[in-house]
Specification:
3 helices; mainly alpha; single chain; rod-shaped
Length: about 100
């Protein structure tokens, strides 16, 4: 009896491609989380690069990069919040704090 139920469920899934839709949604979410992680890395790199500069023009450029990377990261976090995308990412206590306000 159990095998019959499994066969029926599998045939329904194959008819409606339910499994593929779930996989595509999961892949889209994973891709988005990858973008969030990459944006966070870019922000951290911009912050670290600032520490090694002495030329005033390069300092201005580094500040611009930090602000741009931070805004990108915050915008992606807002989008994740709107779409209710969650992840169990570890929080590093040495990371800067972010205040999220306004639109991206």
């Amino acid at each position: 009896m159990n095998d019959r139920i499994k066969k029926v469920i599998n045939s329904i899934i194959s008819i409606f491609n339910i499994g593929q839709a779930v996989d595509q949604a999961g892949n889209a979410q994973n891709d988005f989380l990858g973008m969030v992680k990459q944006a966070h890395r870019e922000w951290q790199i911009a912050l670290k690069n600032f520490d090694y500069l002495t030329d005033p023009d390069m300092i201005d450029y580094a500040i611009y990069n930090i602000e741009a990377a931070e805004k990108k990261y915050i915008c992606l976090l807002k989008t994740a919040r709107k779409e209710k995308i969650t992840s169990n990412l570890p929080v590093n206590e040495t990371e800067p704090t972010i205040s999220i306000s306004g639109d991206c």
